[in-house]
Amino acid sequence: MKLIFTLLAIMVFQFTLNATVWRVNNDDNTADFADIIDAHDDAGVQSGDILMVEGSNTTYTSFTCTKSLTIIGPGYLLTENYESAHILPANINRIIFEDGSQGSSVYGMSFISAGGTPIVLTDEITIERCYISAGLPVKNAKNVRIINNNMHSVGDYYNGTGPFSDVYINNNIIRNKMGASAGSHIVTFNNNILLGDSYGFNAEYFRNNIVWQNDALIKVNSAYIENNIASNNILTGDNLNVENIQDLFVGGDSPDAKYKLAEGSEAIGAGFGGTDCGIFGGEDPYIISGLPPVPVITELSVDDASISENGLQVKITVRSN
After folding, report:
1. What ranges do the domains of the chain cover?
2. 267: helix, strand or coil
């Protein structure tokens, strides 16, 4: 465990020479910090720094973020997909992004429990490649990117309604219905897979999405509702109606890899500009298990027979996502 993330921290540091990288692990006392809240509150951790949050059997403490930080976890559904040599997720209930945290990003974290979610109450926040158990509230915020997540839904309903603006919601698996008040504005809602039964909001562009349920209610106010796929004639106009949505995908047991497009799928090349519809098309194709955008060790082999004269023999396989 320590070896894997020490190597990762070294590789991340090589790509982020202007930021300090801090290890966070609540199961390893050699890490810089035992909890994310400890790192956030420490005077030595400055805005612009990176917190490498390591997987653990213990849930990290929820906190309110008032610094501009990049928070990177190991991804989710790791035992289901075996995309990484590390199989423990970094679980947390909530991170609340308030004033001072503008410019923050969070990747590869698992927001668990009935209320598990990041809560966005300020501008310029990126939520990417995360597993989110509950709805994701965005209130009175602008320029928010919600990309490549496996999540419940998005809304502007935290402690009462409050409109958001210039929000980008692309390449997500959205498991439940979703709505936003009339004053809220989404720029792009593209390449999502919609598993819920109702979607209502304002968006400039609603493109390349796949609607799973054949009786879903789509009440999207947009001038560009095009190149989406649904069944039962839910969507008309420049959209594609298919007999059986499930036939578009490879299927299987993986909760997210099963949405890869099957060979010969009608969704291949059916998106705007010739891209694929669904989460693996567009400008930000979905990453299985939400592996973070840093080099990831996919295979680790340590020779148990190593002796002091020869040193420790370690073989690693690394890929970048």
Report:
1. 1-107+291-321, 138-289
2. coil
